[in-house]
Write a structure and sequence with these properties.
There is one protein chain. By secondary structure, the protein is an alpha/beta fold. The chain has a single domain (about 10-130), classed as Methylglyoxal synthase-like domain (Rossmann fold, 3-Layer(aba) Sandwich), CATH 3.40.50. It contains seven helices and seven strands, in the order ββααβαβαβαβαβα. The strands form two sheets. It has a five-stranded parallel beta sheet, sandwiched between helices. A two-stranded antiparallel ribbon has the order 1-7. The protein starts with a strand and ends with a helix. Belongs to the methylglyoxal synthase family. It holds the Pfam family MGS.
Length: about 150
C-alpha cells in the first residue's frame, strides 16, 4: 500500500457518536468543551446530534441513527476525506445489534489514520492537544495510483 501526506486543517470535521448508555457522558464532555467544539464542523449520528444541538446550541450536521446506517454514513465520510476526527463513546459492556457496523466504522478510522477517542479521558487528551488546533499532517492510503491502474 502506498501512502501520501494529507493535511488536516485547523478547523476539523469532527464526527460525534455515542451508544445510548454513553450519550450522557458525551453530552457532558461536549458541554465541557463547548467553546473548542464551536470552532469546528460537527457531524453526528441522529439522536446524538439532536441532543448536542438541543443542549449546547451547536450547529451539527445530523445523519441518520447509528443502527439505521448512521455509523456507515460516517464511515463513508471518513473514506471520502470529509471526516478527520472521530469521537465515539462506545459502550464496552453492552452488546449492540449493529456491532458489525461499529467495527466497520472503527476499522475505517484506522485505515484512514484519523484520530479516534472512545472515552472521555482520550477525548480530553485529544481536544486539549496543541496539535488539535493547528494544521496537522498525517499519512493516509494513496488510492490515486490504485484507481488509475484498476481494470475497467
Amino acid at each position: 500500500m502506498d501512502y501520501k501526506t494529507v493535511s488536516m486543517p485547523a478547523t476539523r470535521s469532527i464526527a460525534l457518536v455515542a451508544h445510548d448508555n454513553m450519550k450522557p457522558a458525551l453530552l457532558d464532555w461536549a458541554d465541557k468543551h463547548h467553546d473548542l467544539l464551536a470552532k469546528h464542523k460537527l457531524h453526528a449520528t441522529g439522536t446524538t446530534g439532536s441532543m448536542i444541538s438541543a443542549r449546547l446550541g451547536l450547529d451539527v450536521n445530523k445523519l441518520i441513527s447509528g443502527p439505521m446506517g448512521g455509523d456507515q454514513q460516517i464511515g463513508a465520510m471518513i473514506a471520502e476525506g470529509k471526516i478527520d476526527t472521530l469521537i465515539f463513546f462506545w459502550d464496552p459492556l453492552e452488546a449492540q445489534p449493529h456491532d458489525p457496523d461499529i467495527k466497520a466504522l472503527l476499522r475505517l478510522a484506522a485505515v484512514w489514520n484519523i484520530p479516534v477517542a472512545c472515552n472521555p479521558a482520550s477525548a480530553d487528551m485529544m481536544i486539549t492537544s496543541s496539535l488539535f488546533h493547528t494544521e496537522f499532517e498525517r499519512a493516509a492510503p494513496d488510492y490515486d495510483s490504485y484507481k488509475a491502474n484498476r481494470p475497467t
